[in-house]
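Fig. S4 source data, part A: sequence.
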Amino acid sequence: MIRLRFDLNALGGCRLLLAEDSMMIAGALTFFLESYGCSVFKVARCDQILTLIKTQSFDIALLDVTLADGLVYPAAEALLARGIPLLFLSGFSAQHLPESWGRWPVLDKIVDPELIVQRLITLYRDH
């Protein structure tokens, strides 16, 4: 049984773009984030992000740095141009991110899901 530490509606109404190319990780994160009230929109490729943001609006983006079709940075630029705050997930150390992305939080993929929720709550409230 999962014991949730935050208010179950902590992310209520939040429209979250999840870019993750591992179906297992994406599925687990979606289940967990929806339990906090998020509406999660999953994609696995940068080109899918660029297509989706033309027709949908989002409050936050949770982005795997390396997606099926390459690094996420060009899509991240497009999200920032729309004022969407970012949280990066990476299978590599945060030190591998280019310095220009240093202002955005990055978490290792192998992390307590509640730490992800905590960071997303902060981004959502500050946005």
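Fig. S4 source data, part B ends here. The chain has a mean pLDDT of 87.
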